[in-house]
Amino acid sequence: MSYDTQPKASHFIDGTYVEDTGGPTIPVIYPATGAQIAELHAATPAIIDRALSAAHHAQKQWAALSGTERGRILRRAADMMRERNRDLSVLETYDTGKPLQETLVADATSGADALEYFGGLAGSLTGEHIQLGEDWVYTRREPLGVCLGIGAWNYPTQIACWKGAPALACGNSMVFKPSETTPLSALKVAEILVEAGLPAGVFNVVQGFGDVGSSLVSDRRVAKVSLTGSVPTGKKVYAAAAAQMKHVTMELGGKSPMVIFDDADLDNAVGGAIMGNFYSSGQVCSNGTRVFVQKGLKAAFLERLTERLSNAVIGDPMNEQTSFGPMVSEKQMKIVLDYIEKGEKEGARLVTGGKRLDRDGFYLQPTVFADVTDDMTIAREEIFGPVMAVLEFETEEEAIRRGNDTEFGLSAGVFTRDLSRAHRVIGQLEAGSCYINSYNDAPVEAPFGGTKMSGVGRENSREAINHYSELKSVYVRMGDIEAPY
Ligand code: NAD
To answer: In sequence order, which ranges of 65-152 are alpha helices (DSSP H)?
Structure first.
């Protein structure tokens, strides 16, 4: 292999790579071949302590810089990420199996967007002045302290930056634990930040499984936890954080509805359904996996969808022509195959796909089920793979009611040419990140996050600042105090 995927060491602490082989082994597997491409070690208690201690000591000095000074470093890191986009994208493809065609435009670039955006905001973070006659109150926007980021495996670089950039802009330090499935790229983010001038200890990366995440969450030095992961993990992390009244951001799973009305532009609706179900082989939290299609358009929709899916280029993710890659791991592939089996058993009609590909790596076919009913497992549970469930509906009211009949609330989409209906329907769908005649756009300027079981808090946009800082209010009396005794 010409590209060196083995990092210098497993962890990045206090400005440098650190190893401790005492921790359990983390094999890194290239999903396109099943070959091991690196070996790391999970953090030992000593490593965890070292990372938290470094973050704790570095934070106050970092916060003492002006916002403009902090922002300058983040913006420099953004430029460096863009300059190194190709290398970072190749690494991300090795780590996740996502096609280079995607990683070149959606991973390091999205991370760079976050660093640039929050770097730009850092200098403008202010409190307010509230005049009360002679007296007055002023507020100070203060950092929380040491923030903990815990990542999922689908967008490792993006997740590290979406959490790190706003945290650092506000004057916090961070310990980031990537997913054990994709541990490589966060180390590069840390390396770049330090090269861009970030003081040692402000952004640290420690590797590990759930137990390492759990130890970090319950450490008293951690003021805030931001998790991207599944709902079951979210419940555990939220509960552990609550025990010490820590701030949280929870970016969790979904089973989002995409509602396509008869009057929708057919190709746009099909394109949206493809992007919202098969990009990254369906491993996207906000995917619109319950595709409600109005009765009159259903046959045409399924026909056009099948036709367009036959154009997917499935194969070597490093080939830039490839538009559909493998699942991230054998484990995830098996989970998805189980769901496909359940779909067939419970009576859904397999329109296309449904099989593992006969080749090395963890490849599944893009899969579409029609005649799916609301009670079927594939319509209720998050699959996190390339499986689209198409459900038929007749009326607007019905689509809204059935769309909302889920414990999740991450995203929702509407396709129609009737714009007042689009706004009316999206206004009633219970979800945090919504789309009209589009799907899964996630610019850094827009808040991102879920309602109901899909999460708490928002990432990106100015709103993220509120989740990485808190207000101190200071009452200033200009005259004498009147006390009764
Ligand atoms: P996961 O919940 O298994 O793991 C997420 C992270 O939590 C990993 O780093 C893991 O090591 C860690 N972890 C596990 N148990 C822990 C514990 N008890 N304490 C602390 N940390 C612990 O999720 P995954 O399989 O890596 O990712 C897929 C899930 O993530 C899907 O449900 C998907 O919808 C969700 N996701 C959500 C978003 C979003 O922004 N809303 C984005 C991407 C993925």
So the answer is: 67-83, 85-96, 100-106, 108-122
**459 annotated active-site:** yes
* Alpha-carbon gap, residue 340 to 30, rounded angstroms: 24
Q: What are the start-end ranges of the E strands in 266-327?
A: 290-294
Helices (H), 196-283: 210-217, 231-243, 266-278
| Tokens, residue 39 | 């070996």
140 pairs with which residues across the strands? 472
Helices 156-169 and 108-122, axial angle in degrees (round to 10)? 10
Question: What ranges in 310-418 are assigned the alpha helix state H?
Answer: 330-345, 377-380, 396-403
- Which is catalytic among the residues 102, 251, 396, 430? 251
Which residue from 179, 231, 237 has its CB within 8 A of the most atoms of ligand 1, so it is best to mutate? Answer: 179
pLDDT tens-digit series, residues 218-227: 999 999 999 9
Distances (CA, A) of 155 to 82, 98, 108, 284: 17, 9, 9, 9
Q: Tens digits of per-residue pLDDT, 12-65?
A: 999 999 999 999 999 999 999 999 999 999 999 999 999 999 999 999 999 999
Any ligand 1 atom below 6 A from CB of 230: yes
Cα separation, 375 vs 135, in Å, equals 61
Question: pTM of the predicted model, to two decimals?
Answer: 0.97
Cα–Cα distance for residue pair 36/32, rounded to 1 Å: 11
**Catalytic option among 92, 98, 163, 180:** 163
Quickly count helices (H) and strands (E) in the chain.
16, 20
